[in-house]
Amino acid sequence: MQPTPPAPRVVVRGQAVTEVPPDAADLTVTLEVRDRRRDTALTRLTERQQALTDLLEAARGDLAGVTTDAVAVYPEAGDGSRVSGHVAVTTTRVRMADVAAAGELAVAVATLPDTSLHGPHWRVSRGHPVHQQVRSDAVADAVARARAYAAALGCRLTGLVEVRDVDTHGGGSGQAFALAPGRARLDLQPAPQEVHGQVEATFTMSVPDQEVFTR
Description:
215 residues, alpha+beta, five-stranded antiparallel beta sheet, 8 strands, 40% strand
């Protein structure tokens, strides 16, 4: 008795993409202080960092988190190889929980002395329901593609072997600000973010119609 041949398979990739307004934003704040003396540069940087901390503390209801990404202190060379001063730098990442408050906070941060601001960088949070939506849409697209291939061969889908998630990403955009002190106001219009879903799926199908191969 001959063994039953394995069922034919079809492997497809399902894709989906949609645009949604961002529900989160990030600000990157860099404080950079220069002074001839190393200890003075560090002292001034500490004062600048404390001013930033106080400002963020006042806005904590709009924030999802604050982290220090980097700290650096290094000598700065002047003419030749002689050290002319020292530079002290910190970089802080601010995650916004309230997108609508990003513009106001960006202006407030940018008015601090010795400050560079990059952002807001708009994004869609991991917990946003759109991620589940595009995954489901990607699976539906994979099934539709597999059915179309099976139909072209004169057969039908009979089962699922595997569904594999494929790494995806969401779009983002950023802007850098360099504002002079004052009561400036930014009316920001967050760009819609693309959210992608992608799967690879393997299905079994019935034996193809042999007439397909003789056409």
